[in-house]
Specification:
This protein folds into two domains: 221 residues, Rossmann fold (3-Layer(aba) Sandwich), CATH 3.40.50.300; 66 residues, Alpha-Beta Plaits (2-Layer Sandwich). The strands form three sheets. The chain has a six-stranded mixed β-sheet with strand order 6-7-8-3-9-10, sandwiched between helices. Helix content is 33%, strand content 26%. Helix 3 runs parallel beside helix 5 and helix 8 crosses helix 11. A hairpin with a 2-residue loop joins strand 1 and strand 2.
Length: 330
């Protein structure tokens, strides 16, 4: 049985199709990364899968239960940490996790030890008695994760859990996701970070403009792109003039930040020939780098543009995004 399964899942807002009929299946015990830019439909999909938003069409099952007909059963089986954590700044970290335990029907004594164990697990024991209003962004994300785990969910949904975090806080979240998955928890992760998907996911689904573009393991997706590419910076804004020369060696990608890219079927063996051809054309190479295919190359191949255009830290463009402070945890 799949932990998460959708069939032609849609969500529309008037004439806008935020999610345009997606099919996916996430296996038990898998880390699945839903990768795409802001506005792609990632958060809308998660809100449907976690029963916070009713699908317009299609169907979805989570932990074996239909998200519409068996919403209560779904909620008992899942943990959710959304982009906007619903954390009362006047409560302490320990109080918040104990409250979540109470809401899930866990006896008070059990809730106290669970809260203490989870806060230790996410590295917040020393801050458990502090008001949440004094927590940093990374601490708040880890606290929200602890609260989402209090009832030991089978499936954990993390909606862009590291957006806007510093590298150390991001690494801490990654480590905890790996630990949870090693213990058998299925993780459905939405992200706009290429490295996050590459580092964590068993499989990746790329969504753009509400449509599933491609799905597979990170390695398989990158292999589909094919050859490595050469990135070149040229003097005096020569990127545009270099394109006709580079086209003799492989497919030339649109320049980005003054850097021009060309695919090389034989990789490093062609670099010297490329540089000589540019020199013969009167173009000076200032720097170059041979880059192996990445998930951004996959995104470019599927959509014709780069993923890095997404602005960090913004909401996913959901027309019904939760206002800050709203309690959206099931």
């Amino acid at each position: 049985m799949a932990a998460v399964e959708t069939n032609a899942l849609e969500r529309s807002y008037g004439d806008l199709r935020a999610v345009a009929g997606i099919d996916l299946a996430v296996a038990e015990g898998e880390i699945y990364a839903f990768l795409g830019p802001n506005g792609a439909g990632k958060t809308t999909t998660v809100r449907m899968l976690t029963t916070l938003l009713r699908p317009t069409a299609g169907a979805a099952r989570v932990a074996g239960h239909d998200v519409v007909r068996d919403a209560g059963a779904v909620r008992r089986q899942i943990g959710v940490a959304l982009q906007e954590a619903a954390l009362d700044p006047l409560m302490t970290g320990a109080e918040l996790v104990r409250l979540q335990a109470t809401l899930h029907g866990i006896p008070r004594a059990d809730g106290r030890w669970k809260a203490a164990a989870l806060l230790e697990r996410v590295g917040l024991s020393d801050a458990s008695g502090r008001r949440i209003g004094t927590y940093s962004g990374g601490m708040r994300r880890r606290l929200d994760l602890a609260a989402a785990l209090v009832h030991e969910p089978r499936v954990l949904f993390l909606d862009e859990p590291t957006t806007g975090l510093d590298p150390a806080s991001r690494q801490a979240i990654w480590d905890e996701v790996r630990n949870l998955n090693a213990g058998g928890t299925t993780v459905f992760l939405t992200t706009q970070y290429l490295e996050e998907a590459d580092q964590l996911a068993d499989r990746v689904g790329i969504i753009d403009e509400g449509l599933m573009r491609v799905e597979g393991t990170p390695g398989a997706l990158k292999a589909q792109v094919g050859s490595p590419h050469l990135e070149l910076s040229l003097a005096d804004g020569g990127a545009e003039r270099a394109a006709p020369v580079l086209a003799r060696f492989g497919e030339v990608q649109p320049p980005r930040d003054g850097v021009v890219q060309v695919g090389l079927a034989r990789g490093a063996a062609q670099i010297a020939t490329v540089v000589l051809a540019l020199d013969d054309a009167g173009l000076t190479v200032e720097s170059l780098e041979l880059v192996q295919p990445t998930l951004d190359d996959v995104f470019l191949a599927e959509t014709g543009r780069h993923l890095e255009g997404a602005d960090e830290g913004e909401a996913d463009g959901d027309p019904e995004a939760e206002p800050a402070g709203a309690d959206a945890r099931p």
